[in-house]
Amino acid sequence: MGGVAVVFLFLLLIGTAAAAANSVIAFRDGILPNGDFELGPKPSDMKGTEVLNKMAIPNWEVTGFVEYIKSGHKQGDMLLVVPAGKFAVRLGNEASIKQRLKVVKGMYYSLTFSAARTCAQDEKLNISVAPDSGVIPIQTVYSSSGWDLYAWAFQAESDVAEVVIHNPGEEEDPACGPLIDGVAMRSLYPPRPTNKNILKNGGFEEGPLVLPGSTTGVLIPPFIEDDHSPLPGWMVESLKAVKYVDVEHFSVPQGRRAIELVAGKESAIVQVARTVIGRTYVLSFAVGDANNTCKGSMVVEAFAGKETLKVPYESSGTGGFKRASIRFVAVSNRSRVMFYSTFYSMRSDDFSSLCGPVIDDVKLISVRKP
């Protein structure tokens, strides 16, 4: 009888572990359950900073060499700082963290998370929710703190989304992987063109979640295509990211959100609009600065159809904007609208933080010929 009881208890424990591994958490907009990693493993589930048990971090499943890092942890001469709270995780070679969420099939979602490089040079992250996946390069550091907020989007193919953040790196030192913190998500509602604007999401009001308390804005990575963009309607067709800024922490020309072009000609956004060949259109937009001490002479280059306009803007770094417009005749039933900054800029109070002009309130309308 004792043997039967032991077998029963063993099966019960296996069943409990399997249930924990396969548990699905109901999703709500905001930080994911324990997305800030403030709830950590038990001491018995750790060896130094290394997490030994794949279910040791509450609400997460870990694979490979994952470390649980306390802010202020020293690695050689490097001091590891956490952007919010006291804890973060570090992903070693081929390591990942995973969480299963209950979502709405067919709905679009945007994932936001903080990431920081440590000692590897060419760091990147593979973000996936099957069948969607994307590689986000994090070797360019946009802020002096070393931590940047990134966004990535997906469309739910079923009612369960398995969110995986994976380090595909192959460093000699497995402890050289990126740090991850502040994982959050929000539902996206892709806007449609209207009779007042042929462009979708011209005011950038629909976009990724900006973490409460975050003052850096959210980077929308390069090579983001239109089908699953965290900035619905727009593509990032460049080598570097663009930054999504909010009115709570920056100066925004119109509404509550705008885009900062933070990497010169390497930081561009594009939208392809439906047009009628031979018809005249006007593209109008606002150019300004984000009130983030980004001073100096700036130029935004706007492209619409076959026309180009350079808009100079003298920034005092304290907020402000001007309006500009460009008229063109459509030569195709699809016309490209694109913006980038001519120059690189750095914040005047922080020469290691990239910045640039802000664009907002982008409208495209059909007009009668004069």
TrEMBL record:
Top-level taxon: Eukaryota
Keyword field: Cell wall, Glycoprotein, Secreted, Signal
Subcellular location: Secreted, Cell wall
Signal sequence coordinates: 1-19
Keyword Glycoprotein: yes
DUF642 domain residues: 30-186, 198-364
Main location (coarse class): secreted
Name of the protein: Protein DUF642 L-GALACTONO-1,4-LACTONE-RESPONSIVE GENE 2
Organism, scientific name: Cardamine amara subsp. amara
Taxonomic path: Eukaryota, Viridiplantae, Streptophyta, Embryophyta, Tracheophyta
